[in-house]
Amino acid sequence: xxxxxxxxxxxxxxxxxxxxxxxxxxxxxxxxxxxxxxxxxxxxxxxxxxxxxxxxxxxxxxxxxxxxxxxxxxxxxxxxxxxxxxxxxxxxxxxxxxxxxxxxxxxxxxxxxxxxxxxxxxxxxxxxxxxxxxxxxxxxxxxxxxxxxxxxxxxxxxxxxxxxxxxxxxxxxxxxxxxxxxxxxxxxxxxxxxxxxxxxxxxxxxxxxxxxxxxxxxxxxxxxxxxxxxxxxxxxxxxxxxxxxxxxxxxxxxxxxxxxxxxxxxxxxxxxxxxxxxxxxxxxxxxxxxxxxxxxxxxxxxxxxxxxxxxxxxxxxxxxxxxxxxxxxxxxxxxxxxxxxxxxxxxxxxxxxxxxxxxxxxxxxxx
Length: 367
Fold this sequence. Notes:
- This protein is an alpha/beta fold.
- The strands form 3 sheets. The protein has a 7-stranded mixed β-sheet, with helices on both faces. It has a 3-stranded parallel β-sheet with strand order 7-6-8, with helices on both faces.
- The chain is built from 13 helices and 12 strands.
- The chain is 40% helix and 16% strand.
- Helix 5 packs parallel to helix 6 and helix 7 (212-226) packs across helix 8 (239-251).
- It is globular, with a radius of gyration of 21 Å.
């Protein structure tokens, strides 16, 4: 995989999205029909689940807004959420094909299981943008974050939090994501590149469906197997699981809590960071990712090339040279909340600093 240059500024994060590489050219007849349609395009949007707050709160409205902007309010979004069920998502692809959408944006529940649906869409003349997760099958474009870098950022942050405790004998727990999500393997790979040899990964789990309750059960098992006084830190691949992990630690009367990582900058995760229960999260600027997905989708629906959007390419297990844009990420701690999620308009101070967190917010300068 050839990656976009990784550039992070703790303040305003500017990403250059210049381009090279292009999608498969549409046939002359398809291009003619797309041109005739103009801005009145129909974009199918399939998101994977609704337990993680980001999809309904950020991704969906951001993509809708950008599609409307790019089509002079003539574009239509047809939306469905699979609620973490790959079979349901496959049926949703069939429905989108029946409804004759002009392009699909798909965030796959299961990157392999979606391949047949992608193939059917392609056969129906519907280009497919893989969003956030690299779906298999003949996809036309892909946008996400540098997912190995996400894991590296998490691993580095955990070592920083451990300080002098970071040594080969120090026992940590790794709570990875679902095996059906290709991103989870990349997060794990990136994290291991930082953690292996520097700490003892005493227990490691691939958490079914990313569910917080499954992470909670896994953590209970880890505490029982390792001993609550011997766990110095926890690598959690996302914020939802971090919540389940912290609940398990508190139920076992672990005090003080060991540092716990996260990802997605969910509101509850940011609040746990403010209160000191969670050490960090990975902030992924969803507006940039959503804008790119919308730009790719609208261009493909109109039969246009992606030269002005996608400057890199990636290889999936089934498709080589997929035009892609990878958006950089930043480590979110209590020290840069103002410069990230607040500055970018993801949350307001009032949303973070509810009555329960007022005192803690004051201590970190959020008031």
